[in-house]
């Protein structure tokens, strides 16, 4: 009852927020235009600094062909756009801070998000070349071959137009993605064939479908857990990491996370707050529908499956919170998700080979992954002490240990959520964060698996400041190109220096509009 009273009080507080006053609305207009200019600059910069296909039509195109010949200048333009978007997002957060007496409306935030996203829909891929792997793996499936057995070089040939764009490290590896995603990609490949840019555009539309699901689910889940909807949307859907790595980077996390969040909302739609009440047919129907959506998210990328555990906890608590209730809920979700997953694997014709390729990404050994970094450190110490080079063994050992730790963390969070010590959706966000951070590979966009669920349920100032700071820092430190610079490392400092100068000039020119925003707590949650 106490927890329910807190939620009701939070919901009441949400309803009491007044709309922005006239000066704040003028500031909101400045923020919108500031971010839109940044998105336009990022789009222009992508012409020379994006992860363009190997056989790009740009170099021979009048005017546009100049940008690929000026990589430093193009990257400086792109980075200036990044600085503008991130600063606009930080300033926008002032009008979405939980507990503020006046908040922007949902329509104001939606229009702002639309203005920032529209220019990014048509840019070249940036930050990563993963979308080219999607295209090649989808073409393998479209050819009737098994993408879980063959890599692009073997199945399509080294000189195939789609293979040439795949990074060398992935040309011989099978697909690590679920059958639902490759089935969707197979349809795209049937439409576009070997045409790279149309294929990229259709894959981006698939990600935008996932983003639309996120935008639909976030405010509804937030209201359910006592967080202002615009606060969840600002930290979630408007997050620069979403704009840069889902929309621009075309990562299928957008579709997987969207399905997961929609599934949670649908499953909870008819669930009463009174424990022990008999389950109605209507409630069971929504649980089945929600579980189906979450399972489909897992059939895109497997981390979404963790949401089934925390959904089971919520169902068990609704049934009375006893251990037998937890077992019943687990059995129910296991049957539903099992039927859906088997149906997806068999129905797509791709089978179950994806289960064996889930660790494909582990072939990359990056310092960004904590267990891999610990393995490198242990191997280096062994060399230093004259014990021999055992780096590979240390990496394998550290990965096994940290994966075991992540399982323990996830199980502990599930138990705490079952006992009512934490919100289940908070446990989901923290659990996904632990599983991915302690996994064999860590990419910047993996942060969104944790950030988006937590945005719907956490009001704590400390968390929101940390999430805001982490998102902003990660967004600005990653080079916008998907290239390794081919030894021309000087391009990055040149581009960053030029972008910082350009950003400073923008602030100086617009100082009368910008300085009031800077003076009034630009970091959300700092009040």
UniProtKB/TrEMBL annotation:
<comment type="similarity">
    <text>Belongs to the MptA/B family.</text>
</comment>
<feature type="transmembrane region" description="Helical">
    <location>
        <begin position="75"/>
        <end position="92"/>
    </location>
</feature>
<keyword id="KW-0328">Glycosyltransferase</keyword>
<dbReference type="Pfam" id="PF26314">
    <property type="entry name" value="MptA_B_family"/>
</dbReference>
<feature type="transmembrane region" description="Helical">
    <location>
        <begin position="34"/>
        <end position="55"/>
    </location>
</feature>
<feature type="transmembrane region" description="Helical">
    <location>
        <begin position="491"/>
        <end position="510"/>
    </location>
</feature>
<feature type="transmembrane region" description="Helical">
    <location>
        <begin position="400"/>
        <end position="418"/>
    </location>
</feature>
<dbReference type="InterPro" id="IPR049829">
    <property type="entry name" value="MptA/B-like"/>
</dbReference>
<feature type="transmembrane region" description="Helical">
    <location>
        <begin position="367"/>
        <end position="388"/>
    </location>
</feature>
<keyword id="KW-1133">Transmembrane helix</keyword>
<feature type="transmembrane region" description="Helical">
    <location>
        <begin position="284"/>
        <end position="317"/>
    </location>
</feature>
<feature type="transmembrane region" description="Helical">
    <location>
        <begin position="430"/>
        <end position="451"/>
    </location>
</feature>
<feature type="transmembrane region" description="Helical">
    <location>
        <begin position="329"/>
        <end position="355"/>
    </location>
</feature>
<keyword id="KW-0812">Transmembrane</keyword>
<feature type="transmembrane region" description="Helical">
    <location>
        <begin position="242"/>
        <end position="264"/>
    </location>
</feature>
<protein>
    <recommendedName>
        <fullName>Alpha-1,6-mannosyltransferase</fullName>
    </recommendedName>
</protein>
<keyword id="KW-0472">Membrane</keyword>
<feature type="transmembrane region" description="Helical">
    <location>
        <begin position="201"/>
        <end position="221"/>
    </location>
</feature>
<keyword id="KW-0808">Transferase</keyword>
<feature type="transmembrane region" description="Helical">
    <location>
        <begin position="463"/>
        <end position="485"/>
    </location>
</feature>
<feature type="transmembrane region" description="Helical">
    <location>
        <begin position="113"/>
        <end position="128"/>
    </location>
</feature>
